[in-house]
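User: Please predict the structure of the protein below. I'd like the answer in structure-token form so I can feed it into my own downstream comparison script.

Assistant: Understood. Taking the following sequence of 110 residues as input:
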Amino acid sequence: MDNITTSNYNASTRTKIAVLAGTAVASGLCVVNMMRRGNIKHVKNLEMGVREGIDLCCASTVGGLSAGILVDDKKNRKAKLKDSVNQLVGNTFIPFGFLAVANKLTRSYL
């Protein structure tokens, strides 16, 4: 089981709960930080831009990764790191990059 990928690895319930908790805590802290930066009193008044979206995605990924590394076996760390990099690139940087480019183009031509 040296070459572990996310498709053939079934995490234990303990690991899944830890990753969920780490993701939730990191995301919550990120939202609180964004609210403090903008001097906002309620979450419904929070405006999300590209930077805030990337911050939130990165925080949730790093929170889940750190909790998973703390709880899971040492042999699964490499797969977790690869999966986290894949999540950041495929689910964060590429989509938000396209949004930023589209936003810049529409502002310059409209």
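That's the full token string. The mean pLDDT is 86.
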